[in-house]
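Changelog excerpt

This revision adds worked examples to the README so contributors can see how folded entries look when concatenated. The first example is reproduced verbatim below.
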Amino acid sequence: MSFPVSISLSQAGISFAAIAWMAGIVARSDVPRFPWPRLLIAGLCIYGLELLSLILLSFSGGGFAFIKQGLSREIKDVFLILMAFWVFAFSEDEDRRKTIEKLTYIAIGILIVSGLIGIFSRYRLSNIPYHLMHGWEGNMQARYQHHAGTFLAGTPLMFHIYLPVGFLHSHLTYGALLMMAMPILFLRAMNPIIRYTSDSKKQTLIAIMIFGAACVVFMINNARSAILGTIFVIALTVYYYSRFHWKKKALYLLIPAVIALLAFGGLFIFADLLHERLRALVIALSGQQKHTDYQRVLLWNASWEVIRSHPWLGVGAGHFQESVESILLNVSKQHPGLWYANETLQRGHSHSDPLHILAIAGIPAFISYIVFFAMLIHRAIKPAGRAIFRFGAPGLLIAGLYQCYFLDDAVLLPFWLLVGLTLRETETGQTSAKS
């Protein structure tokens, strides 16, 4: 329940749960045994091949110090996969599964409410305790949120809006968490309407309002990689439900789709009338370049150079930055006009999950990454069991093309939570009458 608030608290929670689980397996007979589903084995292979690459590369120089650096970077996140194992094992019991799902809904609620508050807050919510102790001026320890626009300027009703990040520190991380929640919110809002279920009108109206609020927060958040991932997972959701539940009733979705397109088209057409910063957000959502897009191009180019030089083993986990820096230095010497651009790059990762995995661990790890997501998507569209939590996790494949989400522990923890629920939802042998 704490992943939208504190990654440290969330990691402490899964660590404690895993330790208690292992102790329970030894001491009690009624504790779920440790499962080994093939999907999670494939996930472990990604980290296993990264570790193997690191060990083999250490023999050519660097020794244990070389391995230690990799263990403290990308490979350290392997323990987060315990979330998927734990959720899959404990949700086998119906009551436990309902509890896990209930807490997941609460976490999504916290995510949306904190985002709505963040739209109108100059201060990052996670920095409020710091401001209370050190004053309300922004600094490197407590940066302000990015300003997105001003409305009713020059009047007593003037107000500002900001890119919401909730309790998190990055709008990209926040966007990824919303991306994984969007299929759940979409189904809660649309499924009762399309299928004429017995859900009360009040519940359906509340679900529609929550989904609408999430859409507003998502658009203002402006994480384009997460938006692309959301388009993919919503399409996956519609495909599954159209095939197994909605049938021809899925055509009703054309109504909200047309309304959404007209609304966005209107924003784009009249973008010049908006505040400069808000106009930039709308233009960026249309697919046109943002002012920082060149940085990704430079990093991707440097990453390809690393991959071409080390195709099979990569350069080793934890050693991406130093390898890219040497390439950028050579490029700057050959093209002095790129010196400033190369020096200001944030080059701790490649801004693309597939490229980063190729660069640090080579082709075998990349293949395991693709196989894992292929198995996850295949599992998500399997016509079995309930189907409300299984469509959020695959979005990380598409969003990860433009951002290194697989390195973000704040994203990985809810990701593995949804992977565990996907496994549980697809365990039974027939499709459920409910979502």
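The second example, added in the same revision:
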Amino acid sequence: MVCEVIKIGRECALMGKKGCSFNGGKCYPIVDRCQGCERVTVFPAGEYCIACPDPAAKWSGRDCNLGTHIVKEKAPEATKSVDPLKASKRKAAGR
């Protein structure tokens, strides 16, 4: 249904016939760590995340998994050690 509380005019899965079914009956504004994310949208009531009704809960203890501005570092690939005896047996077997 379309939100009638905070994100007016936007489709919301939490909106029902009796109003917003989220904790407290409304969405919560973004936190400082949300700045720069593509999912942050400005509404008349302030800046809100269009993907998450409570951004502070997403950021508690870890990075938000929905954040588009977060660059995750890849772990360096460990060089795989090859046992020379097994390698020679594989080569002899034709694998």
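Reviewer comment on example two: Residues 58 and 89 are 52 Å apart (CA to CA). Residues 1-71 form one domain.
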